[in-house]
Write a structure and sequence with these properties.
By secondary structure, the protein is an alpha/beta fold. The chain has helices spanning about 15-20, 50-55, 65-75, 120-130, 170-175, 190-195, 205-215, 225-230, 235-250, 265-275, 290-300; strands at about 5-10, 30-35, 60-65, 80, 95, 110-115, 140-145, 160-165, 180-185, 195-200, 220-225. Strands 8-7-6-9-5-10 form a six-stranded mixed sheet. A five-stranded mixed sheet has the order 2-1-3-11-4.
Length: about 325
């Protein structure tokens, strides 16, 4: 009899193989793939991170890397595999008002910066980069954040955090001057109206420079599995990691066809990226992602979201730590 496993993920191009039947799924499991968004609703709803980490609704799910690290540090019953469905450079996700005189990260010292939540992975990454890459004292900033945290925590003394309504429009708050900058994992609607711009005049160059210094494309999400499910299915972590390797290989072929995407120059954009970054930006496994993981754990510790320096091996199931 097959073991029934539910996997909640978003519908990215690298996840298409999970939805279209092109994966070679082992006969030992019956995989139900749930299309669930986080901030936006997909076929099977939204709020995937809370549904997994708070409600334990799924057997396995794509969740915030930051919230997962916090969950592990607090002993919550989840374990991950080193498969990372979402990545972003913070340099593309920092916004200021169009008429702002803020032209570089160092000028954000002492300012008011909006966040989706204090622990959102993009927020932790952008804050960490602001300090580590650009030398800004994070405690000099007032962090204006929506009251919507996946893993509950009490900020340590010294942090200036101001909460606004969970449904507040941070893009409009930036355009109206209530905040000086916004670190956001989506493009705010005000970007298209012209009232908001990206902080970096040439964000692509800033990303390439970050990659040249650090040699990784920062992780946003990870695949978490409930410990109880692993206990009943000890082969599941390695099986899922293998499926992610398959999906990566399949997805990498999509833009071999220059007409695959609705974007007119998608294939040329991939060629340009290869010239700028010249490396695999989506590696699967612990070995190739270790510096990326260690940097983010350090950011979480520096921002006092966790109380000790976790080792990368503590995040992942023992069957996949040699990957």
């Amino acid at each position: 009899m097959k073991n029934e496993i539910s996997l909640a993920i978003d519908r990215y191009d690298r996840h298409f193989p999970f939805f279209d039947g092109t994966l070679d799924i082992p006969k030992s499991i019956s995989l139900t793939v749930i299309q669930a968004g986080e901030t936006s609703s997909q076929r099977d709803g939204a709020h995937r991170h809370k549904r997994m980490l708070q409600d334990k609704e799924f057997d396995a799910a794509e969740v915030s890397f930051s919230s997962f690290i916090m969950a592990k540090a607090r002993g919550l019953p989840f374990t991950a595999i080193p498969a990372f469905p979402r990545r972003l450079f913070s340099q593309t996700q920092m916004y200021v008002a169009t008429d702002s005189d803020i032209t570089r990260p160092a000028l954000l010292s002492g300012k008011r910066i909006g966040l989706q939540s204090f622990q959102t992975t993009l927020a932790v990454l952008a804050k960490g980069d602001l300090a580590h890459e650009y030398g800004v004292d994070l405690k000099s900033v007032t962090w204006v954040t929506r009251a919507n945290e996946t893993v509950k925590f009490e900020p340590k003394p010294g942090w200036n955090i101001e909460y606004v309504a969970a449904d507040a429009d941070l893009g409009m708050m930036l355009a109206d001057g209530y905040i000086d900058a916004l670190f956001f994992s989506r493009a705010p609607s005000t970007l298209e109206t012209g009232s908001v711009r990206r902080l970096f005049p040439d964000p692509k160059k800033a990303c390439a420079e970050f990659f040249s210094r650090n040699r990784f494309f920062p992780i946003m999400h990870v695949i978490a599995i409930k410990d109880a499910v692993i206990k009943e299915n000890p082969d599941l972590p390695s099986l899922l990691l293998n499926l992610y390797g398959q999906a990566k290989s399949i997805a990498e072929t999509y833009m071999d066809d220059p007409g695959w995407s609705q974007l007119s120059w998608a294939r040329m954009a991939r060629e340009e990226q290869t010239k700028l970054l010249s490396a695999d930006t989506w590696p699967v496994g612990l070995t190739d992602n270790r510096p990326n993981i260690e940097r983010f754990i350090g950011y979480s510790l520096n921002q006092e979201l966790i109380d000790r320096q976790l080792k990368p091996e503590e995040l992942f199931h023992e069957s996949v730590i040699q990957s």
